[in-house]
């Protein structure tokens, strides 16, 4: 430090110390100088706060873009989502803030309403309960599922439900659900064919684009009930011919890629699954088990599910082929039926299976 300069140490006291010091001055227990020495707070600071010249709550820097309540809600969402098995990527948090700011049209310094690295750093400083860590990369051998791991997952699920005072859900299969998505090819391989023993040119003409795949989201209960599905198409706007082919209670999703997104998943839960639950008078709350690889749990969906009594919980990673009912039993059966429907369709007509004709055919397979 150069000669003649003085290094100041700012805020070497807590907010509680400041409140206690001001209270002692008001009650005239000690003099201003004595309180300053006792708590290590400058006399000028105490004098200005007592006289109302400066706010009682100290604050540095400009106002945050989000309010204290909004940031507290973000903190709660991040922590609880991680505890349920869905740890969040920083980009997902930034995307959520961007959607909020675009919705409420609040002025902000961000490019396209999306916060950057500096905002994230300051947000983490304001919320020390949240930490940012690198994901551990593990080998296939270490990722292998063990009996102990499965038993531990069931124990953690039981403890979570007990903590939420909802352990009775496990005794009611009508309140336990599993949701997952699968892809159905418009031109699947229909199996082995018959022909001359030594004939090499075994082939069949494709009834449509060979690699075209349509995403279907299905949800089933442990009691065997099936909620209406959602079918997702790669469109900006759903063509009328496709829209009119849908049953009234099915969901129509759309995304640029044709895959499920957080927006389409929210639409499904809010407009298809939840109304179906309420219509059937299924007791709330319910448990909805999801694949841990899903990134569809946005803050809007989390808030909706929390308010309506839908408890989201992550299945054990790398074990969905063992634990997930959709993978273990339901989807295999659906795809077997779908291949049979395609085979019968080929026998009746030479017309290709397209997005326009998919829904009436798929409905026969579920």
Automatic annotation (TrEMBL):
<dbReference type="Pfam" id="PF05225">
    <property type="entry name" value="HTH_psq"/>
</dbReference>
<keyword id="KW-0539">Nucleus</keyword>
<dbReference type="InterPro" id="IPR004875">
    <property type="entry name" value="DDE_SF_endonuclease_dom"/>
</dbReference>
<dbReference type="InterPro" id="IPR036397">
    <property type="entry name" value="RNaseH_sf"/>
</dbReference>
<dbReference type="InterPro" id="IPR007889">
    <property type="entry name" value="HTH_Psq"/>
</dbReference>
<protein>
    <recommendedName>
        <fullName>HTH CENPB-type domain-containing protein</fullName>
    </recommendedName>
</protein>
<keyword id="KW-0238">DNA-binding</keyword>
<dbReference type="InterPro" id="IPR006600">
    <property type="entry name" value="HTH_CenpB_DNA-bd_dom"/>
</dbReference>
<dbReference type="GO" id="GO:0005634">
    <property type="term" value="C:nucleus"/>
</dbReference>
<dbReference type="InterPro" id="IPR050863">
    <property type="entry name" value="CenT-Element_Derived"/>
</dbReference>
<dbReference type="InterPro" id="IPR009057">
    <property type="entry name" value="Homeodomain-like_sf"/>
</dbReference>
<dbReference type="GO" id="GO:0003677">
    <property type="term" value="F:DNA binding"/>
</dbReference>
<feature type="domain" description="HTH CENPB-type">
    <location>
        <begin position="58"/>
        <end position="133"/>
    </location>
</feature>
<dbReference type="Pfam" id="PF03184">
    <property type="entry name" value="DDE_1"/>
</dbReference>
């Amino acid at each position: 430090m150069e000669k003649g300069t003085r290094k100041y140490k700012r805020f070497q006291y807590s907010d509680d110390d400041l409140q206690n010091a001001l209270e002692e001055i008001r009650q005239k227990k000690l003099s201003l100088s004595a309180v300053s020495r006792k708590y290590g707070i400058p006399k000028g600071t105490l004098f200005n706060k007592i006289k109302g010249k400066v706010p009682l709550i100290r604050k540095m820097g400009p106002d945050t873009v989000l309010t204290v309540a909004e940031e507290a809600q973000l903190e709660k969402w991040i922590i609880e989502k991680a505890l349920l098995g869905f740890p969040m990527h920083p980009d997902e948090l930034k995307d959520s803030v961007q959607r909020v700011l675009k919705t409420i049209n609040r002025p902000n310094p961000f490019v396209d309403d999306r916060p950057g690295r500096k905002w994230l750093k300051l947000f983490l400083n304001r919320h020390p309960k949240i930490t940012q860590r690198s994901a551990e990369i593990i080998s296939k051998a270490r990722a292998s599922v063990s009996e102990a791991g499965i038993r531990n997952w069931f124990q953690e699920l039981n403890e979570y439900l007990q903590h939420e005072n909802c352990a009775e859900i496990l005794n009611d299969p009508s309140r336990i659900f599993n949701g997952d998505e699968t892809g159905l090819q418009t031109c699947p391989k229909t199996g082995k064919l018959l022909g001359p023993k030594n004939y090499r040119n075994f082939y069949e003409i494709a009834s449509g684009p060979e690699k075209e795949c349509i995403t279907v989201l299905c949800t089933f209960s442990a009691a065997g009930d099936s909620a209406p599905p959602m079918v997702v198409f790669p469109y900006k706007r759903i063509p009328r011919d496709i829209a009119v082919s849908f049953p009234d209670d099915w969901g129509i999703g759309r995304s640029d890629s044709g895959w499920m997104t957080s927006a389409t998943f929210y639409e499904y839960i809010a407009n298809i699954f939840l109304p179906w639950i309420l219509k059937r008078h299924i007791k709330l709350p319910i448990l909805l088990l999801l694949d841990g690889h899903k990134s569809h749990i946005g803050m809007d969906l989390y808030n909706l599910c929390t308010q309506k009594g839908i408890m989201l919980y992550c299945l054990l990673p790398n074990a969905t082929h063992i634990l997930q009912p959709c993978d273990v039993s339901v989807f295999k059966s659906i795809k077997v039926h779908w291949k049979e429907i395609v085979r019968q369709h080929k026998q009746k007509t030479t017309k290709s299976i397209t997005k326009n004709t998919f829904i009436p055919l798929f409905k026969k397979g579920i």
